[in-house]
Amino acid sequence: MPESALPARTRKRITPYQIAQVVIGLGFLAFVAWRLYEVLVVERTYGPDTWLKFAISGLIIGSVYALITIGYTLVYAILRMINFAHSEVFMVGAFAGFFVFEALKSLPVGTGEHAFIEVYPIPSIILGFVAGIATSMVTGVALERIAYRPLRGAPRLVPLISAVGASIFLQNAAQLMFGPQRRTFVNLPALDRNLGWTLTVGEKPVLITYTGVFTFILAIVLLISLYLIVQRTRLGRAMRAVSENKQTAALMGIDVDGVISRTFAISGVLAGAAGVMWGIHYGQIHAYVGFIPGIKAFTAAVLGGIGNIPGAMLGSMTLGLIESLGPGGLGMDFQLKDVIAFSILVLVLIFRPSGILGEVLSEEKL
Amino acid sequence: MPLLEVRDVHTYYGNIEALKGVSLTVEKGEIVTLIGGNGAGKTTTLRTICGLLKPRSGTIVLDGKDLARTKAHEIVNLGVAMVPEGRGVFSRLTVAENLDLGAYTRTDRGAIRRDLEMVLRLFPRLKERFRQIAGTLSGGEQQMLATGRALMAHPRLLLMDEPSMGLAPILVESIFDTLREVNREGTTILLVEQNAHMALQIANRGYVLQTGQIALAKSAEELQHDPMVRKVYLGID
């Protein structure tokens, strides 16, 4: 009978994959619950002051990730490709800031007793950021022109491979030009990374560094500006139109290639700012400095829902908090924070591939 | 001199020749329709005119300018707007944003405002749904939006690709009424339709396209009485 045949056919079969999902999920939850119980209830390893420190550093790294994540998400939204060379766009920005600060440190002013960076601390910071932002912006735009634009219309895997190649090329070029050693950022007179406000939590001091607060606030300001650009301006509307349908966008008179270029420019601006912030706050950079933050930002983009701007911000903050609270919460070594971050990537891909705020990616949209 | 003159245009998809020397003209103020079966090259013709496809040979002249050598996004500025097949509204943008994008290349704010008022008068539905996400509109409303969006470019030539597709007959009637009104107010229209019956009712002239070539070029009146057109496209014996 047709009536009874229909429900029978549509009844869901439980696949081995779903069983594996449940096992992995329950196993993971049990593990987390057990570790949290050990750390929070049994051993009481950390006091509230330490948890606060973890949370603060999580927010700071999260805000840096957010700036990089936006770059992945914007480019993905417009070209449906992962720009794996984006971490190098971040890296060159950090180097540009580094060299500008070095130059200003040795640039004598007036009688020559003081350096520019000491006499004009605030303009120095601005110059460093301008250099980092400009360098990353140019790198991003050039990257698109050279490595991606000629491949427009090729199968989607092709520009992806080009991106990986460009990433390796830029890492090696940086190593060749700037040397393989780690470079220490100047400790800026106006933003000494060892100074800050001290809070007292449970009779213990918690240092909130100026650089940390600066990084967080600047990142938030940039993210809000970006959001307003995308939602409120003519360029933003054009970007959203191109993201949805390039041909129809062209019919509106939108110069699609121009919009793509500008998207890479905006991504570069944010990544460059993040690079200089990284140097100022964390102090050390090298040719491969972009790799880990880059891949973390990619993780954050997937976590939040790739192609989705609020998702990128939410995913980045979540990832930042998880990786700084995680090792403490699970009673693990702090070196394991990357393991925790990438476990999140795996778990997201297993349980919610569309991310927190993402839509389901169907083939028809790609 | 005609507003649009397409002369001996050959367009290819890879190695497949989709247009085998299409020539047609559209005079200022006319409604010209292009009818033909599936795969005859109707959509290809429109896409070649508006620059989404480039012809391998031939010329497309709009008021002295060769569109075949102009980039797609610059063609709007010359006064050609297209309502693509399947409407192509930006479904994640609001109705208002879609209409704004129609006027993307224009800078004359006062005139844009007047055109917006005109569009909202033609399609009061769009006014009701002004802040709504375009993807939530019905098919008919999306067709209105796509048409309104094209009108926001204040085109001299409006290209319409299958406006009746997938719409209930009553909506088709109202879309065609609007086209007539738009035309009365001075916009020249080149209309591609499978619904030859409706198209020939509002058109001044028509072309019949068969496998990439113009098979017939006559006034709409004559086409309606042409035995071949009646048999093949109007389904009347």
Largest sheet of chain B: 6 strands, mixed
Q: What is the global morphology of chain B?
A: globular
- SSE pattern of chain B: EEEHEEHEHHHHEHEHEEHH
Second-tier CATH architecture of the domain at 1-79 and 191-237 in chain B:
3-Layer(aba) Sandwich
Per DSSP, the total helix count of chain B is 10
Q: How many H/I helical runs of chain A?
A: 14
Name of the level-1 CATH class of the domain at 1-79 and 191-237 in chain B: Alpha Beta
Largest sheet of chain A: 2 strands, antiparallel
CATH class group of the domain at 64-314 in chain A: Mainly Alpha
Oligomer: heterodimer
CATH topology of the domain at 1-79 and 191-237 in chain B: Rossmann fold
Count the beta strands of chain B: 10
Q: What is the typical, i.e. mean, pLDDT of chain A?
A: 88
Largest interface: A-B, 17 and 25 residues
As laid out across the biggest beta sheet of chain A, the strand order is 1-2
Uncertain stretches of chain A: 361-366
Indicate the low-confidence ranges of chain B by residue numbers.
none
Beta-strand content estimate of chain B: 25-35%
- The CATH architecture of the domain at 64-314 in chain A is Orthogonal Bundle
CATH fold label of the domain at 64-314 in chain A:
ABC transporter involved in vitamin B12 uptake, BtuC
